[in-house]
Write a structure and sequence with these properties.
The chain is α+β, with helices and mostly antiparallel strands. The protein folds into two domains: 3-229, Rossmann fold (3-Layer(aba) Sandwich), CATH 3.40.50; 237-335, RNA polymerase II/Efflux pump adaptor protein, barrel-sandwich hybrid domain (OB fold (Dihydrolipoamide Acetyltransferase, E2P), Beta Barrel), CATH 2.40.50.100. It is built from nine helices and 19 strands. It has helices spanning 39-47, 89-99, 104-117, 133-145, 163-180, 191-197, 215-220, 225-230, 303-309; strands spanning 3-11, 16-18, 22-23, 28-32, 54-59, 62-63, 74-77, 151-155, 184-188, 200-205, 208-213, 235-238, 248-252, 258-260, 269-281, 286-291, 296-301, 321-327, 332-335. The strands form four sheets. A six-stranded mixed sheet has the order 7-8-9-4-10-11, sandwiched between helices. Strands 1, 2, 3, 5 and 6 form a five-stranded antiparallel sheet that branches. A five-stranded antiparallel sheet has the order 14-18-15-16-17. The chain starts with a strand and ends with a strand.
């Protein structure tokens, strides 16, 4: 079902949430932002764990603002899995179905279907302590979707796992969500996770929405400096130095930045002469960072670039001056 909130607000002693969240039917929306920005507050308001001070929440055409959590038909997956330790995998997944009064046959059929979906066939009689972290998270996901909820909420479900397993499970979560066609809100502080998972991202800061859009829109066209810094790696160079004026910066990505030994500035290109501060090897490429007294710029380079620029033996004690160049068509001017 479609999720809509209207004029949703919640105030705390030192924090206020003031943001409206929308997810179309079948859409996976990521709430993205730093710790304390309001992501989990928004999720808890939708789930009914917190009551709003103002506003309303709708699932489809049904208002659920005043309903208790167990009457909202919403599935929840938490960071700590929250599996019942005294129950088997089968019993954990079957729990919500039993609460609905489903028949024994339909429960068995549904549990087997979901174990196949999360790639855990044959695990039905295991207990949570016999499962790895990734297996527990799959069981938690299966338990959440077993009663066929109208909406699925996931609160940083992969943050306790190692990087390799997170990458694997986020692909599986995305595949499962698409196969089921379930409207999903996914909370994360990991921008790579949000970019790879979502149909749409809502970037939050201080309880408000900074920008909402597709991953491509947010990556290529951030509306302000906060979004530009939070989504991917970015270069932000001041372009407005007039006293009393609003801060404006050139925004461009390191992967679009080229390094030269001399200026190439023209009507089509902007060049910045900077002192090379660092040269970092990251496998597929090198990251070069140039600095002056006001700002820094990063660029990606390959082995051929290092040879061409004679910086393969770069030493911080004797840094070269280089030109960091960007095509004007690949820059945007944004405000703070």
């Amino acid at each position: 079902m479609e999720l809509t909130t209207r004029n949703l607000k919640r105030r705390f002693a030192d924090f206020s949430f003031d943001a409206d969240i929308h997810a179309a039917e079948g859409e996976l929306v990521c709430l993205l932002g730093p710790s304390g920005c309001g992501k989990t507050t928004g999720l808890q308001l939708i789930a009914g764990i917190l009551a709003p001070d103002q506003g309303s929440i709708y699932l489809g055409q049904r208002e659920i603002t005043a309903l208790p959590p167990w009457k909202r038909n919403i599935g929840l997956v938490f960071q700590d899995y929250a599996l019942f330790p005294h129950m088997t995998v089968y019993e954990n997944i079957a729990y919500g179905l039993r609460q609905q009064g489903a028949s024994k046959y339909s429960i068995t059929s549904r549990v087997e279907e979901l174990l196949d979906l999360v790639e855990l066939p044959g695990y039905s009689q295991r207990r949570p302590e016999q499962l790895s972290g990734g297996e527990k998270q799959r069981v938690a996901l299966a338990r959440a979707v077993a009663p066929s909820p109208a909406l699925l909420l996931l609160d940083e479900p992969l943050s306790a796992l190692d990087a390799r397993l997170r990458t694997q499970l986020r692909r599986e979560i995305r595949n499962i969500q698409k196969r089921i066609g379930l409207t999903t809100i996914y909370v994360t502080h990991d921008q790579e996770e949000a970019l790879s998972l979502s149909d749409r991202i809502i970037v939050m800061q201080n309880g408000t929405i900074q920008q909402s859009g597709t991953p491509q829109e947010l990556y290529n066209s951030p509306l302000n400096e906060f979004v530009a810094r939070f989504i991917g790696n970015s270069n932000l160079v001041p372009c407005n130095t007039q006293a009393g004026s609003d801060r404006e910066v050139y925004f461009f990505r390191p992967e679009d930045t080229r390094i030269h030994a001399c200026s190439t500035e023209s009507s089509d290109t902007i060049s910045f002469q900077l002192t090379l501060k660092s040269l970092e090897y990251v496998g597929p490429y090198y990251i070069l960072e140039g600095v002056n007294q006001e700002y820094s710029v990063r660029a990606h380079a390959n082995e051929g670039d290092l040879t061409r620029l004679h910086i393969s033996d770069f030493s911080p004690e004797d840094p070269p001056q280089l030109w960091f160049c960007i095509e004007r068509s690949k820059t945007k001017i944004i405000s703070s």
